[in-house]
């Protein structure tokens, strides 16, 4: 029972009761899994709320040095921070439920607006990073598995470990140094150059997703500019995850390469390439997909650092700005939103895993 | 599903060969052994550097001037400053060396605290079960899924209010990291406890009248800790990355309190744009090397614990059908800064045709 409530199914838990497959279809599984998101989000949001409140009220934290005690008290009363904390907590939960994350103290904007504006930029970065991770990680993982324990495998494994051992901000700085400063072929930072941003602002409506906006301007130079800006951040963040994918694909393909049906396929004369690509890789997909869900958390954490390194104006960049300004209302909002995203991603991943492998739905 | 050890061999093992790492070192072959040895050497160098930092470093970590006057800012490598000076006028080499000490200190505090809390919670939760167990599992899963860096940021705001002073800064960083790690130990120990609880020897102990505490600590705990050395090495490397990440975002330790690699990299961001490479390259390399060493050790231990991944010679052709024994499916690299992804986690695949899920 307990394992059903966990986010990822735990193989070692007890209480294993084999039910016939007919018991509960995919619809029921999706419903139960969806309902289980609620406690996860609830716990995280509550935890962040209580932790942040132990430091005192947000107004004093943000403006404590700058305003006199009377003004401070006035602002605190206006914002309702002088009421009992439990009342504030219930109110906060209610607000989040309606999508209201409060108002930032430093810039006096609704947090939800900040989230929307900058969240898109982060989504774009994470998308490109995942692309890099797939393109680099998955084929190399298959190569490493096929030439297992050979020099190719050894060097790929060291590469994977290096990917993981290098903090994104360090690899980011190195990329900047080499490609942007010494070779001077790519821009140093930002999401686009000023002229491109101006052109995109002229659009009747913009998505905030710069690649799409750039295509809508119909100007190939703008698109090239946007893509150039994305290369280094995407590489820095993508390589971090690529190492994980490489490891994961390698381990799982090694597992499936040793099975009887692969031997059977080989004896039927299936080409080695096809053997790895189809017969060994396909069954290895499920654990890979499950772990990709966990990678979203890693990617979002990495995005904070990558965005700070490259001044990529997304949620992570804003988060570090708000941290500097000690604007804890905004910080709380961003953290709460990220909690929701992580929970939703895990939900989607579990559903995909269940669709592929019926045994996941117990 | 168990057995970290190879089947009982004919020759007797001496006591030291049963120590966690020594055992695996003997067990390993070829490439695996190379990786383990390389990792152990790098880690040893890191630890030694940390210990003898006061002797090794030419200057203090917050020293700005010596008898000849101020060091000057952003001096290129060479002369009396082998690796140059930072934008703040510190000696890069000295800060890199002293940084090892800070990192080691944070690792030790963070890992010891989280093992203590995580193991205790895992044992109690797994052993007694019931509603407490359910709540703890849900909470730990929620925390576990969350980006660890963000959690560490929130914790460091709570602990030090985002500011950092002397030892307080180091402790704040360590405790922030601890909170992130507790769910990992909790999950592993709880899963092991639940499994061991059903073993016959626990039954017999209970029949003999042993109390819950005795069973938990004597029978269950001793058998549930086989994976701890592995998680320890993984967490140690993750602790360095989290510490550096915190420092890079400005939540680290003040330069006058201790040397911290992440902080130095933060200060080096603007240097890079003007082509100054030595302020970022060396602290960064220090992080990479320290993490690399410990990850190599952790990864080797993980592979050796998993018969499917152990060197072919060591396991022979008979491996055939084995249950998943690796604590980290997919290998240790799943443990990124985002957490030990999939500890006990996303489980097995149908290689052996055995249903390994509940």
TrEMBL record, chain A:
Signal peptide: none annotated. Gene3D superfamilies: MetI-like (1.10.3720.10). Residues 119-353 form the ABC transmembrane type-1 domain. CDD domains: TM_PBP2. Residues 1-21 are annotated as: Disordered. Keywords: Cell membrane, Membrane, Transmembrane, Transmembrane helix, Transport. The keyword Transport applies. GO terms for biological process: transmembrane transport. It is a multi-pass membrane protein. One of its GO terms (cellular component) is plasma membrane. Residues 1-11 have a biased composition (Polar residues). The keyword Transport applies. The chain crosses the membrane at residues 30-52, 125-147, 159-183, 230-249, 284-305, 328-356. Belongs to the binding-protein-dependent transport system permease family. PANTHER family: DIPEPTIDE TRANSPORT SYSTEM PERMEASE PROTEIN DPPB-RELATED (PTHR43163). This is ABC transporter permease. The lineage of its organism: Bacteria, Bacillati, Actinomycetota, Actinomycetes, Micrococcales.
């Amino acid at each position: 029972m307990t394992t059903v409530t966990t986010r990822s199914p735990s193989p070692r838990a007890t209480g294993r009761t084999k039910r016939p497959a007919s018991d509960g279809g995919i619809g029921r599984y999706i419903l139960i899994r969806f309902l289980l998101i609620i406690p996860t989000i609830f716990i995280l949001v509550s935890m962040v709320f209580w932790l942040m409140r132990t430091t005192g009220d947000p107004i004093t934290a943000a403006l404590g040095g700058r305003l006199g005690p009377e003004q401070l008290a006035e602002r605190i009363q206006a914002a309702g921070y002088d009421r009992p904390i439990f009342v504030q907590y219930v109110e906060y939960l209610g607000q989040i439920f309606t999508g209201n994350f409060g108002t930032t103290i430093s810039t006096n904007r609704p947090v939800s607006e900040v989230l929307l504006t900058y969240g898109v930029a982060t989504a774009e970065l994470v998308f490109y990073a995942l692309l890099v991770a797939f393109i680099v990680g998955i084929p190399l993982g298959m190569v490493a598995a096929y030439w297992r324990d050979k020099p190719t495998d050894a060097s790929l494994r060291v590469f994977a470990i290096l990917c993981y051992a290098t903090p994104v901000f360090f690899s980011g700085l190195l990329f900047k140094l080499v490609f942007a400063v010494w070779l001077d072929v790519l821009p140093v930072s930002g999401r686009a150059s000023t002229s491109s941003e101006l052109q995109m602002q002229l659009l009747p409506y913009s998505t905030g997703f710069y690649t799409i906006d750039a295509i809508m301007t119909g100007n190939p130079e703008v698109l090239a500019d946007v893509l150039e800006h994305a290369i280094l951040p995407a590489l820095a963040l993508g390589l971090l995850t690529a190492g994980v994918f490489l490891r994961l694909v390698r381990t799982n393909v090694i597992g499936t390469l040793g099975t009887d049906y692969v031997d059977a396929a080989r004896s039927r004369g299936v080409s080695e390439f096809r053997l790895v690509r189809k017969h060994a890789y396909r069954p290895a997909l499920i654990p890979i997909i499950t772990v990709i869900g966990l990678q979203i958390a890693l990617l979002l954490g990495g995005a904070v650092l990558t965005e700070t390194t490259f001044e990529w104006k997304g949620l992570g960049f804003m988060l570090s700005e708000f941290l500097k300004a000690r604007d804890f209302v905004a910080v709380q909002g961003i953290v709460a939103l990220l909690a929701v995203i992580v929970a939703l991603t895990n939900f989607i991943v579990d559903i995909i895993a269940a669709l592929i492998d019926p045994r996941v739905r117990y | 599903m168990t057995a970290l050890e190879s089947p009982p061999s004919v020759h007797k093992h001496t006591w030291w060969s049963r120590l966690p790492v020594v055992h695996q070192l003997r067990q390993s072959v070829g490439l695996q052994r190379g990786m383990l040895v390389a990792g152990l050497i790098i880690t040893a160098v890191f630890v030694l550097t940390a210990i003898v930092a006061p002797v090794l470093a030419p200057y203090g970590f917050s020293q700005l001037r010596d008898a000849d006057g101020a060091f000057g800012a952003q001096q290129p490598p060479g002369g009396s400053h082998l690796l140059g000076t930072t934008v703040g006028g510190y000696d890069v080499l000295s800060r890199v060396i002293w940084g090892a000490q800070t990192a080691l200190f944070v690792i030790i505090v963070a890992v010891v605290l989280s093992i203590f809390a995580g193991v205790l919670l895992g044992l109690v939760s797994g052993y007694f079960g019931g509603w407490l167990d359910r709540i703890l599992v849900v909470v730990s899963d929620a925390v576990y899924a969350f980006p660890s860096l963000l959690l560490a940021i929130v914790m460091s705001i709570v602990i030090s209010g985002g500011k950092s002073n002397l030892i307080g800064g180091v402790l704040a960083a360590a405790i922030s990291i601890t909170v992130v790690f507790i769910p990992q130990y909790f999950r592993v120990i709880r899963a092991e406890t639940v499994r061991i609880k059903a073993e016959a020897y626990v039954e017999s102990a209970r029949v003999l009248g042993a109390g819950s505490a005795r069973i938990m600590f004597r029978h269950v705990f001793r058998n549930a800790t086989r994976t701890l050395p592995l998680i320890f090495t993984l967490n140690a490397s993750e602790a360095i990355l989290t510490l550096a990440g915190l420092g890079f975002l400005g939540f680290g330790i003040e330069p006058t309190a201790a040397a911290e690699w992440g902080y130095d990299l933060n200060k080096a961001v603007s240097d890079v744009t003007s082509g100054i490479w030595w302020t970022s390259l060396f602290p960064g390399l220090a992080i990479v090397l320290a993490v690399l060493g410990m990850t190599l050790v952790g990864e080797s231990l993980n592979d050796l614990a998993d018969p499917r991944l152990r060197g072919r010679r060591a396991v022979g052709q008979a491996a055939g059908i084995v249950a998943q024994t690796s604590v980290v499916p997919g290998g240790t690299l799943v443990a990124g800064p985002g957490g030990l992804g999939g500890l006990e986690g996303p489980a097995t695949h149908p290689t052996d045709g055995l249903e390994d899920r509940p």
